[in-house]
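Known limitations

Files may contain more than one protein. Parsers should not assume a single record per file. Below, a two-record file is shown to illustrate correct handling: read the sequence, read the token line, then continue until end of file.
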Amino acid sequence: MQFPFDYPVREMTYKEVNDRKLRLYVSEPDQEAANRPVILFFQGGSFQPNPKFSPAQFQHQARYFASIGIVSICVDYRTGRDAGFTPLQAIMDVKSAVRWVRQHAEELGVDPEKLAICGASAGGYISVSSIMFDRLNDDMDDVSVNAVPDKLVIFAAGMDGVDIMSRRYPELLPIAEEISPIHHVRRCLPQTLWICGTGDDLYDQNRGFVREMQDAGNPITFKTYDGMEHGFFNYGWHNNTYFHETRQDIEGFLRPWLEHTAE
């Protein structure tokens, strides 16, 4: 599959499934160096039969973070455009991508212990689920490699797996609760920045889940944007006001890694 990137990216295959090559689209800082922070982006809208977003959804954020010294990767993972797709595959793909990057850290010039992932909407659900549900692993993965990121950024993600499966994948209803983060609250997340607009249909669910997870000991910062809808942070929306503001939120969240790298 080809996706519309506006900027030069380095394409790397992290997994092959049948004849499908799953790729990483890497935006690299101008200066070559070792042990740089790395962030992986997972698009939203991926559970729809014909997703309107592609891995390029976060290309503008990736380009910016590369410019300040963070290796930035937009991840191609299986979505509703793939035949026979279910969210279980996407959850496994998140883990595969994280493991691949850690296994190829030297080649990429990154610190395998300064790895962040950012997921929006469906991409946020699979990002959180990849951390919460240990048993979901691709048979091809080396499970001895840690698949849990060191930092996590989420944009307004549905956390009720029963609701998601009942609407999109009713064939998964028998196991829906098993893959529903809201039904498995426990201490498991790394340091997390969770961003949500108060006008988002998922706002109440996100706020409730975050509170329960905070009470369970998870280090989550919940940042809200008054009145903003689902996807408000996207490049090209709202004259890019919130694209820039949320980009600054993420930069501040990752800044300690950059300061440490510079020492």
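...continuing to the second record:
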Amino acid sequence: MLMRTDPFREFDRLTQQLLNTTGTWSRPSAMPMDAYREGEVYVIAVDLPGVSPDAIDIDVERNMLTVRAERRPVTKADDVQMELSERPLGVFSRQVVLADTLDTEHIRADYDAGVLTLRIPIAERAKPRKIAIGGGSAHKEISG
């Protein structure tokens, strides 16, 4: 048997149940994420613990990146009596508007230890470059 020791966590769980904050396809819950630049790559890391890789959907339309995932209940035998259930189930979704400076044609997605990591390269046109100055006269003298 499990003993509950944090009354505030229990209050949060009850509030979620009362407000029905379990995500559905029409109203998905948010998922926590980090976003940062690592050299020439923009990285988005999304926490999806307990989600099967085949239950994750990643789309890019124009500059809108959408990550949707569904955590399904684990099937249990008929004689199982649930003692505690705090892990959220349902549908999770996150949309991120990507800058025009990112190369959305070459996004790489990896999923390891419950973390979905998206790596989006910085577009070549957005990288700093030197502009050469040409020689010669840029103007003519006009005589009157």
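Parsers that stop after the first record will miss the second one. For reference, the second record is described as follows. Residues 107 and 120 are 5 Å apart (CA to CA).
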